[in-house]
């Protein structure tokens, strides 16, 4: 974990190095030592105006949390986590009440990120009863397909966090679709949907979402899931299984990744099985039934120390081949 720590005092600032409990701390206070971060990140530059302006390059691939403190003992998060892109981040901050600020490099960045925009993407939403598809054009126009019926729409997108976003579709028939996406993999995860006519809620559903297959795609069980991800629509926020290597991969659940070993096995014309072992004491047996191209339903049995513990079920969507 790395921390860049900044203190504003007496209209002058310089930087010095702090190292404690294995963490890299970049501190700005009184003194003249150069900043040296164990993570190799650049030192924050500070300028004092009517408000304090803090700027710092955020390394690509890292997840940062800006925090403030009045006493260097208790720290509060300021805003949502920030994804590093390599560009400099800059923001005006009020000094009153919080003379200390720091950037904390989070131990683990999320596996997946909600996109800045949905432009150019097509997604399918599988609630177990039907599959709806949304095509988001480069402009604010798009299409919303319910079953076999496709209708024009205008769409907006708001990214509310590293893994969350909200799409709102104004459909040509006068309805409004609100889609909340929780990403558990790139372009895939768990969704909830509400359809309104005026202020009246007409319908709601939930399940899994993923990239919409090509119109020419046929219903078939893939022979291999190498480098592919299954987004599972289990509650409350979904999970995913990525077959990232031969004989295994990673599961993403509740912000954490866990490695597993397992092999994809075709068991029928529309069915497949994956037995995932997360260690000598824990295993999960997945049964998948494809009901549409790259989508269907699953069941999961959980075992601990060879004893059956739990059963659940839900929908799934499979991402596109690499």
Account of the 3D structure:
This protein is mainly β and 322 residues long. It folds into 3 domains: 2-105, no CATH class; 122-211, no CATH class; 228-318, Lipocalin. Helix content is 0%, strand content 59%. It contains no helices and 27 strands. It has strands spanning 2-7, 14-20, 23-29, 45-48, 52-57, 63-69, 76-77, 82-83, 88-93, 100-105, 122-126, 131-136, 141-146, 149-161, 164-171, 175-185, 188-197, 200-211, 228-232, 239-245, 248-253, 256-261, 264-266, 271-277, 282-292, 295-304, 307-318. It has a 9-stranded antiparallel sheet, with no helix packed on it. It has an 8-stranded antiparallel β-barrel with strand order 11-12-13-14-15-16-17-18. Strands 1, 2, 3, 6, 7, 8 and 10 form a 7-stranded mixed sheet that branches. The radius of gyration is 24 Å and the shape is globular. The model is unreliable at 6-41 (pLDDT under 50).
End-to-end CA span:
32 Å
* Number of helical segments with 4 or more residues: 0
Class based on secondary structure composition and strand pairing: mainly beta
Q: What is the 3D shape?
A: globular
State the total count of DSSP E strands.
27
- Taking Cα atoms only, what radius of gyration do you get, to the nearest Å? 24 Å
What's this model, at a glance?
This protein is an all-beta fold and 322 residues long.
